[in-house]
Model the fold of this input.
Amino acid sequence: MSAPAIRTDALGKRYGSAWALRDCTLEVPAGSVTALVGPNGAGKTTLLQLVVGLGRASAGTVEVFGFDPQSEPTAVLPRVGFVAQEHPLYSGFTVAETLKLGRKLNPSWDDDLARTRVEALGLPLGRKVGKLSGGQQAQVALTLALAKRPELLVLDEPVASLDPLARREFLQSLMEAVTETGMTVVLSSHIVADLERVCDHLVILSHARTQLAGPIDEIVAEHRLLTGPRSDAAEVARMHDVVSERHTERQSTLLVRANGHVYDSSWELHDLDLEEIVLAYLARNRTGDPAIARTA
Amino acid sequence: MINFHLDQRSGVPTYLQLVQQVRQAVRLGILQPGDQLPTVKDVVGSLAINPNTVLKAYRELDHEGLAVGRRGIGTFVADVPPSRPPDDWKALRTALQRWVDRARAAGLDDENIAALFADTARAEHISRVA
Done:
């Protein structure tokens, strides 16, 4: 792929003495749909806000299309769409008034796109936004962001408050927009099952740090669950990156990120789905050591 | 035309599920040479999946010789779906049989043999997609 849409290097943000984000280094490839996962308080919202220029980094750097969103906002912001958490809109405005506001505020506004989308989704133009369902409000917020014709769309927990049907419809229309425009998308979410369908890249953030970043296919292919004799566990740990481990007196169960080929007749291998891998990383403790559960 | 479906519990990667469904439809005659596969936008719109996943599946089908992409028009089932020459198939089977005999002689049981085979095929696949 071409130059990354987003590149951060040792990026950090401190509020008082507490680091909301620390030592975050990652790249989001242009044209990718990248998921940002992590528990509440992991720094997801902070990272996304730094990307869209809402706030100044306390440490490190962030570049969007090669520019700093804070010091060179005119090179970044017209090219970026942002849908904030809970998709805030003016609830007293009608759908039509909301679109008019979008037109007035955005020089690159595509009114045809906005009108066509609203019509296709059956959103009533005359209704006040506050009277719409949660799914419809999310669609209005997405329309506002898309009509700006962004090259990068950033969404903070876009589907967290939606019911399963509205969630599916939202992701369908998001993916259709990606197909049409080829734009880069970064979205944060808790719902791993959705991410596996929709995203091709993944960043796991926890304890304010990046735990893992890469293409989802590779992440799933690299991780294996190994079950075998406890006496050999240290040898496996020497070869492969152990993400989580459980031990009984004689047996060990290791979730590893394999360095190349794994085969040893004394170890049983199991495939993992994305959710199991994500959960193992989220359970890892602050120092990056594997989470250890002992059942004697 | 076929409709794709997804089994999210299967553990099979999404793009591979699409590939398998096309292969199966061709095998059963539901898809015939020259038939158009659903457009990327149609698949994305109906399944809410990433367009790159659909493109990857169609690239894989192209690579296998099962489908042909025509720029700006769509992806079509290839005129002559490839079938492996039967003697090639037989030779592979004989070689594999010899290997299985050796593995058994070395003390591997069926589960071990299956695990070793799956892991080898997978490692080769990873190095091919990477």
Chain A has a mean pLDDT of 89. The first helix of chain A runs from residue 44 to 51.
